[in-house]
Amino acid sequence: MIRTATEADAAEILRIYRPAVQDQVTSLETVLPSEDEMQRRIRTTLVQFPWLVHDDGDRLRGFAYAGPYRQRQAYRWSVEVSIYVDLSVRRQGVGRALYERLFEILTGQGYCAAVAGIVMPNEASRCMHEALGFESSGVIPAVGFKFGSWRDVGWWIRRLRPADDVEPPLPLAFPLWQQQHRLSLQHAPQARDAQG
């Protein structure tokens, strides 16, 4: 089941995210956030953007979310997206399902473009993004330093709406979009906090 994340999911989200921080360069974060910090990120993201989790009823298998793409006002129709999938279920459709649902919501909110940064090389992520309609828009060389080496970051973009010369309406906040569509994404039981 794909549903909206809650703060109670923070520990499970950290479990999925931990290898990207501590063992890999898929995230350029170098210190794993605390559970309190992850709860804060979920809470603040959901004020405007979707944060989704793939929940198999026992554990979370992945998560995907959107956030602002830069801060200048002219960028307000674009978002930066991120996705992380549990190592045990890679290549089983979890990432595709999360992203497809995320893009459906973002389009409904009124966003026009989704941008994804990929620390290079990462062939699996590149292939998944391109299979989902992203196009490469360039690489920034040696922009991050992790595990003793400089890391390149490639940027990919997916159009959510046509890029014409008409200024679109401002995107809806995620909670307002949910209300307007009478969408009730289920939430995890609070007991997940105790399960860790």
Multimeric state: single chain
Q: What's the β-strand tally?
A: 7
Biggest sheet details: 7 strands, mixed
Rg to the nearest angstrom?
A: 17 Å
Structurally, the number of domains stands at: 1
Figure out the total of helices: 6
- The CATH first-level class comes to Alpha Beta
Structural class: alpha+beta
What order do the SSEs take from the amino end to the carboxyl end, as H and E? EHHEEEHEHEEHH
Strand content: 25-35%
**Uncertain stretches:** 186-196
What's the pLDDT, averaged over the residues?
Answer: 91
Cα end-to-end separation: 19 Å
Task: Give the overall form.
Answer: globular
| Topology-level CATH name | Aminopeptidase
Strand order of the largest sheet: 1-2-3-4-5-7-6
Brief characterization of the structure:
The protein is of the alpha+beta class.
Distinctive features:
disordered C terminus; alpha+beta; single chain; 196 residues; Aminopeptidase
Descriptive overview:
With 196 residues, this protein is of the alpha+beta class. The chain has a single domain, classed as Gcn5-related N-acetyltransferase (GNAT) (Aminopeptidase, 3-Layer(aba) Sandwich), CATH 3.40.630. Helix content is 31%, strand content 29%. It has helices at residues 10-22, 35-45, 94-109, 123-131, 174-180, 192-195; strands at residues 2-4, 51-55, 60-68, 78-85, 113-120, 135-146, 149-159. It has a 7-stranded mixed beta sheet, sandwiched between helices. Helix 1 (10-22) packs across helix 2. The chain is globular, with a radius of gyration of 17 Å. Residues 186-196 have low confidence and may be disordered.
